[in-house]
């Protein structure tokens, strides 16, 4: 899939995720922790992507190793930002990060965040309420 096609699909998903959160009663003016997901079977490529994400101003967490159902291993990390659920900010970040992923030949797996509101008080519910792209992370 071309970068343009990926961007178009991601921009639509950005709107869907934000709308789902707001429809569920998440706070529209809160600051959110936005976790952009990256993965690759090549650790060195993933490491270069992490450095590039850091240079773009994202907080980068440590890479983790994950075994998939078929027994293969991938490495993954999140590039984290903190801001409101504003579509222009999300679109800009996803465009930058999709281009970074293409450059480093790693996968950009979308982003996720957590519901912010008065109703959620315990950590178990927080984990269940992450809005994400459907990929296991």
TrEMBL record:
Its main location: cytoplasm. Residues 118-137 are annotated as: Disordered. Residues 12-113 form the Regulator of ribonuclease activity B domain. Gene3D superfamilies: RraB-like (3.30.70.970). It is found in: Cytoplasm. The keyword Cytoplasm applies. Keywords: Cytoplasm. It comes from the Bacteria. Pfam families: RraB (PF06877). Belongs to the RraB family. Globally modulates RNA abundance by binding to RNase E (Rne) and regulating its endonucleolytic activity. Can modulate Rne action in a substrate-dependent manner by altering the composition of the degradosome. Interacts with the C-terminal region of Rne. NCBIfam families: PRK11191.1. This is Regulator of ribonuclease activity B. It comes from Shewanella xiamenensis.
């Amino acid at each position: 899939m071309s970068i343009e096609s990926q961007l178009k699909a991601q921009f639509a998903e950005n709107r869907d995720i934000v709308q789902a959160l707001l429809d569920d009663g998440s706070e529209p003016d809160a600051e959110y922790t936005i976790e952009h997901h990256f993965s690759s079977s090549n650790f060195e490529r993933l490491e270069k992507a992490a450095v590039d994400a850091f240079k773009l101003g994202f907080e980068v967490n440590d890479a983790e190793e994950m075994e998939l159902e078929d027994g293969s291993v991938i490495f993954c990390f999140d590039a984290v930002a903190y801001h409101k659920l504003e579509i222009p900010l999300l679109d800009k970040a996803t465009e930058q990060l999709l281009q970074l992923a293409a450059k480093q030949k790693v996968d950009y797996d979308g982003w996720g965040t957590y519901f912010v509101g008065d109703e959620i008080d315990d950590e178990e519910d927080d984990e269940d309420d992450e809005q994400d792209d459907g990929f296991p992370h």
